[in-house]
Design brief:
77% helix, mainly alpha, 219 residues, globular, single chain, 10 helices
Length: 219
């Protein structure tokens, strides 16, 4: 069985229009890029991409259909994912309050603690957990795969679609991280660290709360 190039091209165009959409994954990489080194960014990105591939495989296996048919399980997953993002946001906001009034500079940026207190694990674990916490991505991927015809495609075409997801997401987030690793944006973050941490925390909190509230509203 050969690759279905027209179908793959249609999927690529559709997916490329979605990649720059901001979300928890982008927020995590941006925060790490501003506060940590390339090793930590790479580990978080690796974990993130791995989780996205697993999510896509779940979709191709029909897991999203099972979850759609079992509202209590779907609600539990949304609650867990939203809860993780809310806790992460609260940790960052707490760190922002701690840093208020402190004399901060670029040299004060310490080891990566992308989600505040570090209790969320290392960068790789944070990348995995942040991707899995975005539960709606499971159903969103299902709709994209269905719209592009990937669900009924050959195994080679499905594998190529997964490769495109990894390549495009990895390239976009790597470029974003590279731009933010330059001294000027990192120095800006350091000077305004307390407010920036509060802002990042509020965004994580918003993403998490939206997951839970949207699922509650659907009931």
């Amino acid at each position: 069985m050969a690759l279905d190039y027209p179908l793959l091209a249609a999927f690529a165009l559709l997916w490329l229009s979605i990649v720059p959409t901001p979300g928890p994954n982008t927020l995590l990489i941006v925060h790490l890029a501003l506060t940590a080194g390339w090793r930590e960014v790479a580990l978080a990105l690796l974990g993130n991409l791995l989780a996205i591939v697993v999510t896509a495989l779940f979709v191709l296996m029909g897991i999203s259909l099972v979850l759609a048919a079992k509202p209590p399980l779907r609600f539990l997953l949304h609650l867990m994912g939203g809860g993780y993002l809310v806790v992460s946001g609260l940790q960052l906001m707490r760190a922002g309050r701690v840093h208020q009034g402190q004399d901060l500079s670029l040299s004060t940026l310490s080891a990566p603690r992308a989600l505040g207190s570090g209790r969320s694990g290392g960068p790789f674990a944070q990348g995995v957990l942040t991707a899995f916490a975005n539960v709606p991505a499971l159903f969103f991927l299902a709709s994209i795969f269905a719209a592009a015809g990937i669900i009924g495609a050959t195994a080679q075409t499905k594998a190529a679609a997964l490769g495109l997801i990894v390549l495009t997401n990895g390239a976009y987030l790597s470029l974003l991280a590279w731009l933010l690793q330059h001294p000027r944006p990192r120095a800006f973050y350091a000077r305004h660290r307390a407010r920036m941490e509060m802002g990042f925390g509020a965004l994580f909190l918003l993403f998490g709360a939206r997951l839970v509230v949207s699922e509650v509203a659907s009931w």
